């Protein structure tokens, strides 16, 4: 059975069918990510001053991943253009680069960025005990400058058993620079380059802590939103890569031999999906990494 | 339409109707890619500039992001010259996305809890 309107436009819509199909799908995707983004805005703007984590993600790595995704958006549109110009060799090259970019993006996210977060620890201090931990929080200094207070002490957790063992009464934390030197003006705003925890140790009593955990989704609304949105976005990248690999394999070559315009249209549809994935990241990057 | 039979081993002559249009756009795609990379750098730079309040910084970052997204949508996704039906689908979607964000905005004026 021949699928109709794969290369010629349907008279009533003026478009070949898959084009309408992908735009209807993208419309549903806009609603999906729109819902998550509106939830993020809701949580972010209503957070108590100082309660929203800031500067916890690795900005150079995020910038690099943004550049990789933009580059892949260029190569996928060049792959489509090559098919339109009937240059199959170039199509294979550009599509290969696109797949590589998608894989690098995923590897950076899943093998580097996420695991790094899982190893980081943060403890939110009870409001009544903030003064006791002033040497690590520097809130007097921040208040003089009119900046939002800090409520979290973060870094590398030395005694990980403290998370689950009720007999361990305190957390031993190798402090992040922001808590090791809280009154240094250089700590007033997040750094561009990620700085590892210092060797300065702090003991935080569990009784003084409102909430403490590793940087997992349950750590805060921020990380819940971060892992949900970047996870869903990562699934989209994975789906795009799988589709591109399918077109890159002999299946693509066979279709090209039979009907090159059909392959060009299929790549265009997959490309539209890929550009949408890039477009979502364009908003994810500043919202989560920079603000 | 009679097209030369394509092979995967070598490139074949493209049909005239599409290839001229597309080849003209290749440079534009590269320029848009370079612009997007440049504005990614600008976004990062601006996030370290203090615009007075967090809301002002968010506004600036979202303005740059919207410009970048507009470029992707208009040039890479060909929305600068699409058929009417696709614009209709998107206007419809835009309406509901607006409603979604409006609900978030609305809760600040909720007379029950405020």
Short description:
Chain A is built from nine helices and five strands, in the order αααβααββαββααα.
Overview of this protein structure:
The complex is a heterodimer of chains A (291) and B (114). Chain A is 58% helix and 10% strand. By secondary structure, chain A is an alpha+beta fold. In chain A, strands 4-3-2-1-5 form a 5-stranded antiparallel sheet. The longest helix of chain A is centred in the middle third of the chain and has 31 residues, at 88-118. The termini of chain A are far apart. The mean pLDDT of chain A is 92. Chain B has helices at residues 16-47, 54-76, 84-106. Chain B contains 3 helices and no strands. Mean pLDDT of chain B is 82; it is low at 1-5. With 114 residues, chain B is an all-alpha fold. Classes of the chains: A alpha+beta (291), B mainly alpha (114). Chains A and B meet through helix 1, helix 2, helix 3, helix 8 and helix 9 of A and helix 1, helix 2 and helix 3 of B.
Provide the residue-averaged pLDDT of chain A: 92
Integer-rounded radius of gyration of chain A: 24 Å
* Share of helical residues of chain B: 55-70%
Mean pLDDT of chain B: 82
The N- and C-terminal alpha carbons of chain B lie at a distance of 67 Å
SS-based structural class of chain A? alpha+beta
Question: Given the structure, what is the number of helices of chain A?
Answer: 9
What is the helix fraction of residues of chain A, given as a range? Answer: 55-70%
End-to-end C-alpha gap of chain A: 53 Å
The helix-strand sequence of chain B is: HHH
**What is the number of E strands of chain A?**
5
């Amino acid at each position: 059975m021949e699928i109709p309107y794969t290369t010629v436009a349907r008279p009533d819509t003026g478009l070949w069918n898959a084009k309408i199909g992908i735009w209807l799908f993208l419309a549903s995707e806009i609603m999906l990510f729109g819902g998550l983004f509106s939830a993020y805005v809701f949580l972010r703007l209503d957070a108590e001053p100082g309660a929203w984590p800031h500067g916890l993600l690795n900005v150079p790595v995020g910038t690099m991943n943004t550049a990789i995704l933009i580059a892949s958006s260029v190569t996928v549109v060049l792959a489509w253009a090559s098919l339109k110009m009937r240059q199959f060799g170039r199509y294979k090259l550009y599509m290969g680069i696109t797949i590589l970019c998608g894989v690098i993006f995923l590897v950076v996210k899943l093998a580097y960025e996420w695991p790094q977060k899982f190893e980081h620890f943060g403890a939110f201090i009870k409001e009544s005990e903030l003064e006791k931990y002033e040497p690590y929080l520097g809130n007097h200094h921040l208040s003089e400058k009119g900046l939002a207070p800090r409520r979290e002490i973060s870094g590398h957790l030395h005694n990980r058993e403290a998370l689950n063992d009720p007999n361990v009464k305190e957390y031993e934390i190798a402090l992040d620079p922001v808590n090791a030197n809280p009154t240094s003006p250089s700590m007033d705003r997040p750094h561009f380059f990620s700085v590892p925890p210092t060797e300065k140790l702090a003991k935080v009593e569990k009784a003084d802590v409102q909430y403490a955990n590793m940087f997992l989704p349950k750590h805060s609304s921020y990380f819940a939103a971060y892992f949900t949105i970047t996870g869903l976005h990562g699934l989209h990248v994975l789906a795009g890569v799988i589709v591109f690999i399918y077109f890159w394999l002999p299946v693509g070559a066979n279709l090209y031999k039979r009907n090159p315009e059909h392959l060009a249209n299929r790549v265009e549809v997959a490309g539209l999906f890929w550009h949408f994935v890039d477009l979502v990241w364009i908003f994810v990057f500043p919202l989560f990494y920079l603000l | 339409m009679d097209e030369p039979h394509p092979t995967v081993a070598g490139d074949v002559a493209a049909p005239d109707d599409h290839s001229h249009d597309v080849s003209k756009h290749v440079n534009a795609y590269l320029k848009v890619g370079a612009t997007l990379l440049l504005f990614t750098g600008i976004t990062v730079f601006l996030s370290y500039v203090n615009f007075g309040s967090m809301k002002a910084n968010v506004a600036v970052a979202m303005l740059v992001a919207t410009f970048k997204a507009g470029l992707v949508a208009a040039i890479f996704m060909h929305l600068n010259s699409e058929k009417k039906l696709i614009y209709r689908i998107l206007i419809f979607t835009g309406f509901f996305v607006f409603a979604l964000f409006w609900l978030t905005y609305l809760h600040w004026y909720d007379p029950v809890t405020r």
